[in-house]
Amino acid sequence: MNLSVVILAAGQGTRMRSALPKVLHAIGGAPMLSHVIHTARALEPDAIHVVYGHGGEQVRAALSELAVQWVEQARQLGTGHAVAQALPRIAAEQTVLVLYGDVPLTRADTLQRLLLAAEGGALGLLTAHLDDPSGYGRIIRDAQGDVIAIVEHKDASDEQRRITEINTGMLAVSAAQLQKWVAALDNKNVQGEFYLTDVIAMAVRDGIKVKTVHPASVSEILGINNKQQLAELERSYQRQRAEQLMLLGVTLRDPARLDVRGELSVGRDVTVDINVVFEGAVSLGDNVSIGPNCYLRDVVVGDGVVLQPNSVIEEASIGAGSRIGPFARIRPGTVLADEVHIGNFVEVKKSELGRGSKANHLSYIGDATVGARVNIGAGTITCNYDGANKFQTIIEDDVFVGSDTQLVAPVTIGAGSTIGAGSTITKNAPPGELTLSRAPQQTRKGWKRPVKKKKE
Ligand code: UD1
Ligand code: CA
After folding, report:
1. Whose CA is nearest to atom 13 of ligand 1?
2. Are 140 and 163 within 8 A, CB to CB?
3. If exposure means fewest CB atoms within 10 Å of the residue's CB, which of 21, 100, 116, 219 is most exposed?
4. CB distance 393 to 375 below 8 Å
5. Predicted confidence band at 385 (pLDDT cuts at 50, 70, 90)?
6. Domain coordinates of the chain in residue numbers?
7. Residues 3, 97: contact at Cβ < 8 Å?
8. Mean pLDDT throughout 38-58?
9. Cα 79 to middle of ligand 1, angstroms
10. What CATH code is assigned to 3-221?
11. 428-445: average pLDDT
12. Exposed e or buried b for every residue in 27-64, given b needs 16+ CB within 10 A?
């Protein structure tokens, strides 16, 4: 099928009460409009036209990586007028599929069924039965049950308002026909708009069959006009993501307390406890276990890794068998080899740690290259910043850094060396030796604590 998709996205979205154009508000971490574009793409159309208006430049800039045709609708004169802006760019032999930029959760297979309905010169119309149809255009059928028109809620009689079958706004029909009908639209209605919905009656008049298709679930056709609806659809979306993950074999302690905002790939036997947030591109190996309240953004996690509760990991790679947290912070540019242990209140930034190395308590490791089997004692800090520039710390294999040590970069700690607890290391420490900087310990024999003077 020669398909052109037209996505209507020019609406203002005043009810969002936001400076951000409505279609840029995020579902699952991505602008709602990008979900519609991705779904449209799955249908392999020849072109996707996005009709934009409000905050147009911002919308185009935010989605500049998506290959779509941008069509401006300078004034929002109605859905029919919006489609009319795109039609001159669409060849007559194409099939046009109309979607809405603020209806993000429509499934591609539903749209495939809609396109199928439009085959052979029919008009495919996506409709749904709603318990509360108010606000929507109503589907008017004749005695035979054939669709003959759509009447907008505001234009409808009381009797028509009792109809529960509503127009979702999505339809598919030949471009040649649509061009003819849209050109004939007027705005003689309660809202003074050019209604796309008026083409239905025109189609029927021209002897075109209107075939209706229903979505698999109502969330597929729900639009977003305010923050409540945004939150509701976010929950629907997250529920779907959770279901997909469970079908892939992931154990979710509670599918309602998980957020995936990006691409998440998973191995076998992954377990995710509650309130975990995944952002960007995250990949989890086999047998990964993630404790409650962890945040992962753009992370590669190797097989058998245990992330203990309340760990925050961004732009990092965690080697197989590593154990992180609880309360660990792994910052961008960190690469941990296999079997690394990062414990509570440890912050690691832009550093590499070799196989089997450990920093189990209360440390800051920044701009460091740490070898294998290194033990970093509690309270160790790489002093990587002099207030102006950052410097590197190199800790070679098999080093033991005693607790409460400052390593003032640039500095190299030689392989197999030991740093005495409480040291401030400002010069390179030679391999294999004990290095320490420590004021000698003193004992003042017979010294007495001061006592409080008695008041007279
Ligand atoms: C429209 C339908 C209605 C349907 C409902 C489903 C018409 C006349 N009515 O009503 O039958 O039940 O959607 O939600 O089509 N838009 C533009 N330019 C415009 C006007 C709208 O791009 O000039 C876009 C909006 O951004 C939105 C979509 O078209 O994505 C629908 O517009 P909206 O104002 O929400 O239509 P409704 O009046 O709700
Ligand atoms: Ca609407």
Report:
1. 169
2. yes
3. 116
4. no
5. very high
6. 3-221, 235-435
7. yes
8. 94
9. 5
10. 3.90.550.10
11. 96
12. bbbbbbbbbbbebbeebebebbbbbbbbbbeebeebbe
How remote is the C-alpha of 71 from its chain's centroid?
26
Which fold is adopted by the domain 235-435? UDP N-Acetylglucosamine Acyltransferase; domain 1 (2.160.10)
Tokens of 341: 């242990």
* Cα–Cα nearest to 32, from 3, 15, 8: 8
Q: Is 49 a catalytic residue?
A: no
Report the percentage of the chain scoring pLDDT > 70. 100
Give the position, in ligand 1's atom list, of the atom nearest the Cα of 195. 8
Residue 63 corresponds to which tokens in the numbers above?
């989605």
CB 352 within 8 A of CB 335: yes
Query: Residue written as tokens 């003074």?
Result: 192
pLDDT score of 359 more than 90: yes
Protein residues with CB under 6 Å of any ligand 1 atom? 8-11, 51, 73, 76-79, 81-82, 100-102, 136-137, 150, 152, 166-169, 195-197, 223
Residue 116: predicted pLDDT: 98
SS3 101: coil
| 183, pLDDT greater than 90 | yes
Gap from CA of 118 to ligand 2 centroid (Å): 23
Q: Which two tokens stand for residue 390?
A: 């950052």
CA nearest neighbour of 243 among 223, 260, 263:
260
